[in-house]
Amino acid sequence: MKKIFINSWLSIFCVVVSSYLFAQDADAPEGELIEERGYFFGFYFGNMLKEGGNGDVSLDDLRRGLEDSLAGNTPNITAEKQQEVITIVRSRQREIKERAETQANQAGMKNMESAKTFLTENAGKPGIKTTSSGLQYETLTEGKGAKPKPTSKVKVHYEGTLTDGTVFDSSVKRGQPAEFGLNQVIAGWTEGLQLMKVGGKTRFYIPPGLAYGPGGTGGIPPNSVLIFDVELLEIM
Question: Which of the residues are catalytic?
Fold first, then answer.
């Protein structure tokens, strides 16, 4: 679900404006892309208004406000009215955020039930082992080297998928192994990699509680089971 609120859009605008001012300080040509810049700011400011629940503003009033601001005129609105507007904007922003959180919580509860069902069924399949924490794993290639320790740094190739087969991350596709400390990753990785030997390849089925839990992250929905094929290349 797309979650972009006023503060997010303001952050984008700050970056854009700062970049533009820096370019001006660097003797960039004046007047460059005037029409395009105007449209760019207008378009994304419109998105900011819409995402903040203020898509109902009058374009004529918006235009007058922009003209007064750019001309350096005194605002044609009292301080009291400004405060009323701020209160409404914040209230709408809160409502949108609360609605999004409610929807995320509902999705999280549904995903948790799906995760329990998946893990219960998966645990009964041949070759699947389950640790006391609930981590499930399947040895694809037996390694012959040493095993990492909780504080070891390792080099691995991996591919992560959701239970529906969606690939959300892959060092294999990037063509670049990942290097990290076992104490820097999710609990399922920290535990699982200690079960492997160098040269081995294992498939991990990581429960939500050992992954990103109800918060999810990036393209990973809340309370998702994560499936990783991991090849331990080196203990560094």
Answer: 158, 168-169, 186, 212, 228
Q: Is the dihedral of CA 143, 146, 149, 153 positive or negative?
A: negative
Largest CA distance in the chain: 76
Query: pLDDT (tens digit, 9 = 90+) per residue, 151-208?
Result: 999 999 999 999 999 999 999 999 999 999 999 999 999 999 999 999 999 999 999 9
pTM tops 0.70, yes or no: no
Domains assigned to the chain: 6-76 (no CATH), 124-235 (3.10.50.40)
CA–chain centroid gap for 170, Å, is: 16
For residue 185, give the amino acid letter: V
Residues written for the chain: 236
29-58 per-position pLDDT tens digit:
556 888 888 889 889 889 988 888 888 989
For helices 6-25 and 34-51, what crossing angle results, to 10°? 160
Given a contact cutoff of 8 angstroms between Cβ atoms, the answer to whether 96 and 5 are in contact is yes
Say if CB 160 and CB 170 are below 8 A apart: yes
